[in-house]
Structure formats: C-alpha cells, structure tokens
Amino acid sequence: MISHLVPSHIAAIIPYPPGKPIEELERELGITDSIKLASNENPLGPSPRALAAIREKLAGLHRYPDGSAYYLRRRIAEKLNVPMEGVVLGNGSNEIIELVIRTLIRSGLEVVIPNPSFLVYELAVQAAGGTVVSVPLKDFTIDLDGVLRAITHRTRLIFINNPNNPTGTVLSEEAFRSFFQQLPRDVVVVIDEAYIEFASRDATFAGLDFVDSQGPWVVTTRTFSKAYGLAGLRIGYGVMDPQLASFLHRVRQPFNVGTLAQAAALAALDDDAFLERSRAVVQEGLAFLYRELDALGVRYLPTHTNFFLIAVPVDAKKVYEAMLREGVIIRAMNAYGLDRYVRISVGLPEENERFLRAFAKVLRQLDR
C-alpha cells in the first residue's frame, strides 16, 4: 500500500470530474452523431488564423518552444496596454491559478473562495496544503460582503470568477470597487476572466483596471480556450504586477506552453472578425434558447457567458443520463451542489434546436 506515503491533504482531494470523450459515450450507448454542449467550448471551432499559424509551425516541432514566449507576451501587453513583464503564460489559465497558489500558499494560510465557483480553485489550494474558506453565493452571485467577512489574518488569496462559472453572473464595477477598497493591503485577489469576452462592459468591470494597485495585489487571468476556440491547445495567461510575475516565473516549468499553442494564440489574438462572430453566435443562440425555454415553462438563469443554468424537476444526474441516450451531452451540476440544475453551452443553431427537442422529450418522460 502506498497510501501511507501520501500526505493527508493530497489524499483528501476529490479529482476534478472530466467528461467522457464523445466517441466513448457513443460506443457505450450505441448512439451516433451525438453533440456536446457540456464544456463551454466554442461551437465554431478554432480561429481560422490560428489554424493557419499552426500549419506554418509544424515542420519545426523538433525544436523546443520559446521558453519566454516573447512574441506572444509582447503582443498581449501591447493589446491590453500593460507591462510585458507582468504577463505570465500558462498551460491554460488553470496553470496561472495553480502557479499563484503554489507561490503564495502553504499550510496554515487561507484562501477565500465563493461557492459554487470554478472547482479547480479548491483542488489547487488543497494540493498546496492551504485552507479553503468557502463563501456561499447570494442569489447566484458572488457575495462580496460575505467574502469581506471571511477574511482573517491568515488570508492570502481571494478568488473572484467574473463572470462566474457555473452561474454566468457578473459583478458591477461599482460593487467590486467598493469591495476592493475595503480589502487588507496584504492579500492577493485573483480575478478569473475566462469568459470576459462574452460579457458586456456596461454590465461589469475589467480586472485589468485594478492590476497596477500596490496592494491589495490583483492577478487577472484569461484564456484562449473559450472565445478563441483553442481549448485543445491549453493556453492562457495572467496579468499582474511585474514583481509578482517574477516569482511565478521561478515556479513555472521552463517550457510550459508549446510551440503550436504560442503560434495559434498569437494569431487568434488579432482575429477580431472571428471573435465578433463567436460573440454573435452566443448572443443569437441565447435569445433563441431563452425564448423556447420560456415557451416550455422552464426556469433558467440568464447569463453573461456562453453557457447557462437550467432548472430541472428531478436530480440533475437523471436528466444528464436521459439526455445522453438522446445523443446530447450536457453537464449535471451535482458536483457544484446544484442538484436540480443542468448547465448547457450555447451551440450552433442546429445544435441548439436538437438540444431543445431532446430536452422537451426528456421532460415529458420524467413527468410520467
């Protein structure tokens, strides 16, 4: 038995629940032509410019990647008007989150996390031996007053997912600024903006506006996985004070972002036409799905992202399994403590229509 060699805080971790590959689900259930609306992915696929950039780099894969990701970091800094020295790239924005935790957290220190929010926060804190302080959402939105009350002298990190996954809600700039001004000066706030490209600036704020503060310290994380359609390449970034960035660089692996990911992200970053099309597909899809769900009398939570929560009359896992048999993969929210909700990503028009047909059929079956 090897378990006695594993620290208790590692043994206690419940792994992140990934979805099964579509091919495996089809084999198990004997279905074909299934669609996946479970992981908040871009239904348009990758940015065309990104695909072209990948093809140009294929012949050079015998060389190590640029360990500093110089050109991509420079372009991000130019586009966002931030110091290049404050940009850190990661294997998805997940890695930036983990790097911040590994840099700042040790046993005895606390991390305040709204709940439910992105599951990786809690897992990464547990892996570092830190203590998670969970603050329940209020009306499906991050309770900033509750976060303030949860802060102690042991608090080093606070996670704010804006827009929040899985609820799709956002914080107003006024509310966040008031919260920010009340924080102790020696805490770090990670503002995870994985879905910020889908949110209206009129509805919320940009974490970048707070990065140059000299305490509380702010890290803003963003990803190329969602709006830019590069989830399979695993690339994201963080923007922070250059001094903090220098410590993250000491912790990260030397070649943590591959050549193809760097090239694709650099090209996608300037593919404004694709970004606008991605936003349009989501907005049009949401309008259609809301209208049809209203007609069915189904409750849902309006969103500022490319996904949203739908209330279901029975345990969400039952709905998930019934939808699987219809060839539609969605996400049951049981792992988030939302046992009567499923989450769906906005798909292409034909995928949205197929979801609605299957969902209406499943609801009728469950009502018998």
Automatic annotation (TrEMBL):
| Residue(s) carrying N6-(pyridoxal phosphate)lysine | K226
Q: What is this protein called?
A: Histidinol-phosphate aminotransferase
Q: Which organism is it from?
A: Desulfosoma caldarium
Gene transcribed to yield this protein: hisC
Keyword list (alphabetical) reads: Amino-acid biosynthesis, Aminotransferase, Histidine biosynthesis, Pyridoxal phosphate, Transferase
Aminotransferase class I/classII large domain mapped to chain residues: 33-358
* EC number of the protein: 2.6.1.9
The record ties this protein, via InterPro entries, to: Aminotrans_II_pyridoxalP_BS, Aminotransferase_I/II_large, HisP_aminotrans, HistidinolP_aminotransfase, PyrdxlP-dep_Trfase, PyrdxlP-dep_Trfase_major, PyrdxlP-dep_Trfase_small
Cofactor field:
pyridoxal 5'-phosphate
Sorted alphabetically, which CDD domains does this protein's record hold? AAT_like
Q: Record's family?
A: Belongs to the class-II pyridoxal-phosphate-dependent aminotransferase family. Histidinol-phosphate aminotransferase subfamily.
User: Subunit composition?
Assistant: Homodimer.
Q: For this entry, list what GO says about its biological process.
A: L-histidine biosynthetic process
